[in-house]
Amino acid sequence: MKCTKLFSLLTVTVAITLLPLAALAAQPIDLGAARTLLKQRTVTLPPVIFQPDASLASCTSYVSLLNKANQDFKACMNPDTPTAGSPVAKFNAYTNMQLAQYCGNKTMQQCVDQVNLEQNTFCNQLVMPTRTQAEKAKQDCTQARAECTSAKSKLESLNKSKLEFEARKKQLEAELAKATADLAANTNAINAANVEVNKQCAGAPVLPAGPAGAIKR
To answer: pLDDT tens across 103-112, in order?
Structure first.
């Protein structure tokens, strides 16, 4: 008899102890309020998730792909247009009972934060192929820009050399012109000297030259 009363007392005690936990586990969450809170969480998302490289703003393929990744991610995170099969799409389709099972002992805010985090992971994976293409386009543009810079640098160096060669050519042409003029003047002087020699020395006796070219007297 004592054992039966003791067992009954323990049963009642355990039931009373577990009652708050059972009540907490079964605590209902308003589905409409949860969806509203989820929308509020989405509004706080930054407009651009994947920041572009400002130095590659002229690379249209890279910019277009990155813009598409941002747009697709934003659309995926939007509770009004979630991708089929995504955590938010399932969340929106829950009945009150399914929502209670999903949230468990979590508060509505904790539950919404959980599905929002799951959706974030899902959307990142969804846009990963586009992001990969954008990174490939970025690498191609970066390489093309480096090759362009190298080609421009080579052209600049060649143009600089050309200016130096042109300046040297002008200098040599000036020197050549002066040398030509000097040669012409010298030739004229020689011709005049020859005339003078012929004039002054015609019929004059030729005297032998002495030592060191001195004339003997």
So the answer is: 999 999 999 9
